[in-house]
Write a structure and sequence with these properties.
Elements (H helix, E strand, L loop, with lengths): L4 H26 L5 H32 L7 H27 L3 H30 L14
């Protein structure tokens, strides 16, 4: 099945965020002294931010990708995609988590770094699996193959 355009983006973001919300809530709860409610509320904020960041970041990434001479999604390109997404997410979530969970910036950094490492692997793996299931987006597709 080759999914493209806005349907692809909505399917990607909705599926990605449903899994991410569960992992984020458990992560914030497990590695802070916060209640499940506070951890869940932070995960809701993180998910809402991630949805908008996901749409915007993926759109920018695919624009860059479409202009690139090399097509396909190599390991390096997938790693670049994952690192860029997680770096942008860290910049926003670090101060919010420190404030909301009433922890130091250092503890928030360590907590967020652990979550970012997990989400780096998750983002990389999820995107690879999604592309395998639904084919590459037009921005990355080669003329002779739909998946690389």
């Amino acid at each position: 099945m080759n999914l493209q355009g806005i349907k692809r983006k909505i399917t990607y973001v909705a599926t990605y965020e449903a899994i991410a919300f569960l992992c984020g809530t458990l992560g914030f709860f497990s590695f802070s002294d916060s209640s499940l409610e506070r951890a869940g509320a932070l995960a809701v904020f993180g998910s809402l931010f991630a949805v908008s960041w996901n749409f915007g970041y993926n759109d920018l990434f695919e624009q860059w990708e479409a202009k690139s001479l090399k097509r396909g999604r190599s390991f390096g390109r997938r790693a670049l995609h994952s690192v860029g997404f997680e770096a942008g997410f860290l910049v926003v979530l670090l101060p919010v988590a420190a404030w909301w969970l009433d922890i130091s910036y250092l503890r928030s950094f360590i907590l967020n770094l652990g979550l970012n490492i997990f989400f780096f692997v998750y983002t990389f793996s999820f995107t690879w699996a999604f592309d395998r299931l639904f084919g590459l987006p037009t921005s990355a597709a080669t003329s002779d193959r739909v998946f690389e």
